[in-house]
Amino acid sequence: MGKLLVTGGMGHVGYETVRQAAAAGIEVVAQYMTTFREADAEAAGPNVTWAQCDLSDPYELTVLAAAHDISGCIHTAAVPNDKLGYPRPLRTFQSNVVATELLLETARRLGWRRFLFVSTGSVFQSLPDAVTPVAEDTNPTPRSLYAATKRSAELMTAVYADTYGLSAATVRISWIFGPPLVPRAFDGPRGPIPEYLRRAMRGEAIRAPSGGDFAASFTFVPDCAAGLLTLWQAEALRHREYHLGSGRNHTTYEVAEAVRRAVPGVEIEVGPGSAPWTDTTVMRGPLDCSRMVEEFGFRPEHSLDEAVAAFADWMRANPDTWGDAA
């Protein structure tokens, strides 16, 4: 078997996927475009070859594919949310749609064994309520730039599977958190866990006037990467779409309790409502992850409390990531 191409290898999900794959003895080609952290690249180990490439450039992608013995791809690279996407819509389309199409065509042409497109629960934006679990065969309802580009790439992934026989699937993930601390300042699309932990580790009191009623399927990044590698290594895929996560929502109130347990002594007060976590997205029911359970027996290893505690331990071991105290 050839090497696994992980796109967005310096990204949040991408790097953890690279790290876990390499640790499992899988030979990896890790693509990045602009961001490159030499220390992280070295830490990933000798099973990883790092390759700079603009995936939306057909020439650069052709060169990348020709230079390495690649047998498949986990495609995590993207403009990851509307906050980043709205100021540059064309670049978002090129990154999220054009690059995916070019990768799919490369996979078809070279006969890759598998292609996994990492998408998002954000493709569901017009649901009847924010409580009912979202089944994997639910019709997506994108309304924003980010959701529309991701849904477009989902459709092309299914076309290549149905028309050309490529073993390809979309994997929708949701509200990823965990090491490293990304970013180092407040960022609504990342959710309350990194924000609250960052401030708690600084010793700050957290007094949020709203946000407690916000609920989401928070997913610890090591669990996300483990699920992606489960799909990569599977003998066959029976479905075109998979949801990857815990299968349940947690409120910000529950997040606050988990942070209190992970960082004893922290003061947290959270008011009702969903802002600021819904300023650039909408609430939805939990992603139903039945196919991962039924087909592969996969469930995330960490509970919310365990994941928050593990993230806090990582932050204690990496105090340079907290930024300066307020």
TrEMBL record:
| CDD domains in the record | SDR_e (cd08946)
User: Any idea where the NAD-dependent epimerase/dehydratase domain is?
Assistant: 5-243
Pathway assignment reads:
Bacterial outer membrane biogenesis; LPS O-antigen biosynthesis
Q: Which domain of life is it from?
A: Bacteria
Q: What InterPro entries does its record include?
A: Epimerase_deHydtase, NAD(P)-bd_dom_sf
Q: Which PANTHER family match?
A: DTDP-D-GLUCOSE 4,6-DEHYDRATASE-RELATED
Q: Which family does it belong to?
A: Belongs to the NAD(P)-dependent epimerase/dehydratase family.
This protein is called: NAD(P)-dependent oxidoreductase
Source organism per entry reads Microbaculum marinisediminis
